[in-house]
Amino acid sequence: MTHHDDHAAEGHGGHAHHPPYMKIFAWLSALTIIEIFVPFVFHANKAIAITILVAIAIWKMNLILRYFMHLKFDALVLGLIAATPGLLALIMASGLLMDWN
Amino acid sequence: MAHDHAAHGGHHALPHIPSEGNFDFTNGKFAMWLFLISDAMAFIGFLGAYMVLRMTALSSAVDGGLPWQPTWMLPMDLILTGINTFVLICSSVTMVKALAAIQDGNVQKLRLFLAGTMLGGAAFVGFQVWEWNHFIHAGITMQGLVVPSLDEAMENALKVDQHANKLAMAKTLFGGRDLKQPPEGKTLADFESGKFSEADYLALPLIMVDPEKGDKRAAQPGVIHHNTYAVAPTKKQPLIQPRELQAEIEDAEPGDRAAVLEKHRSLRAKVTSGFSSTFFVLTGFHGFHVFIGVIYLGIILLRSFKGAYSRENSSSVEIVGLYWHFVDLVWVLLFMVIYLIL
What are the C-alpha distances in Å from B33 to residues A25, A100, B160, B184? Predict the structure, then answer.
């Protein structure tokens, strides 16, 4: 039995236990609404707006990866594979930001 | 779970190749993850290009070059795109619901949620087609931005100053404006963020563009410059190259230059733009993924009618789900970078 099977394992009445998808949906929707208002609210301070927007985006991506893409329930090796491009993106973004003066 | 084909009777199944080691996921799922990370690298490359162009646009604007999103450019509709983002999130939820349904052995619900996911994806692509069409009609294309003609620029300026003399404005609009000396109380950041009004712009000291000296300042409304490369606003308008117009103006006596401009007043120019190029490439590449995803989902839906999936055989649904959520994941980044961080 896999980890994935564990999280979708059969419960009472022949139904599997699934992650709280609707709860994640509510979070994603709420975060999307908040991020749309960020540029308007923090129009005067772009640095704060960008910081909040990046934090929200990371939060949303985390929810999608862990629950919708099941990394929370899958083998660690899949999580490590998924993290690889993120790490490279971080290195690239850091390099580019260092060039920005 | 890990051996879909074998579990499904095997009459059309490929021989099962046991994976080495003790990894508890199917080969298909592993392959999809490998594909997704390579795809993610491509998106990261595009986003890197976007970042570089976006960051250099500010220093370019200091030299009188084209800002990232000039004030005369059609603004992006954040609310509509936000709704479209919500549609994509909804489609992600229907996708996980489809997987949950088949894991519960409910094929009817699987079909229903797959169809819902396809509908969401199609709606998303449909909106993007509308948005592209809207932009292209407003002069924002992959090749660059259409700079408003002298007439249009003057019209915009006249909205601010009703008493402005058109001919005088025609003279002053020829040439760039020196952004290094913004009016009192304004900063370059205001120009970048669109808080720079047309009147603010006109109040800037005038700088003449000299293509012979490789002057890069230009591309403001009404300015014709050697950087522009295509001029053909209507079929009736004879095609004229900006260089030719530049030469024609420079050859004319100073007193006649306004008349030369007057002759070409309805002429528009097209300038290269990092924003428009990266916007179309990024949204286009992503939109193509969504389009492919809708087809992929359609294939899974069709196969579900042939009894391909069951409680014990749901791996293919999970794999298409991974692809679909990846598309959603990428959009989270693109939406933030392109639409929210202007």
Answer: 23, 33, 55, 55
The arithmetic mean of pLDDT across residues B39-65, rounded, is: 76
By Cβ distance, the residue of A32, A61, A85 closest to B89 is A32
Q: Domain residues of chain A, as ranges? A: 20-99
SS3 label, residue A78: helix
Flag whether residue B31 sits within 8 Å of chain A, measured between CB atoms.
no
In contact, B196 and B186? CB cutoff 8 Å: yes
The residue to which tokens 């929370």 are assigned: A72
pLDDT computed for residue B247 by the predictor:
67
- Would residue B228 be called left, alpha or beta, if left means φ above 0 and alpha means ψ between -120 and 50 degrees? beta
Q: What are the respective helix, strand and coil percentages of chain B, to the nearest 5?
A: 60, 5, 35
Alpha helix locations (H) across B138-251? 150-160, 166-173, 188-192, 198-203, 242-251
In chain B, beta strands by DSSP E = 140-141, 144-147, 176-177, 206-207, 269-271
Least Cα separation, residue A13 to chain B (angstroms): 10
Model confidence over B249-283: pLDDT tens digits?
667 776 666 566 666 655 666 666 788 889 999 99
**A78–B44 CB contact, under 8 Å:** no
Q: At residue A16, does pLDDT exceed 50?
A: yes
* A:B CB pairs within 8 Å: 128
Average pLDDT over residues A25-31: 96
In the predicted model, is pLDDT for residue B135 greater than 90? Answer: no
Render pLDDT for A37-52 as a digit per residue (tens, 0 to 9): 998 898 888 889 999 9
Q: Kindly list the structural domains of chain B, giving each domain's residue range(s) and its CATH number in brackets, ordered by start.
A: 4-10+36-142+274-340 (1.20.120.80), 146-271 (no CATH)
CB-nearest partner of B41 from A18, A74, A85: A85
Tell me which long-range contacts B242-251 makes (C-beta under 8 A, separation of at least 24).
Answer: B242/B269, B243/B211, B246/B209, B246/B211, B249/B174, B249/B224
Contacts of B100 in chain A (CB under 8 A): 8, 16, 18, 21
pLDDT value, residue B220: 40
Verify whether the Cβ–Cβ distance A21 to B93 is below 8 Å: yes
- CB distance from A80 to chain B under 8 Å? no
**Beta strand segments in B50-126, E:** none
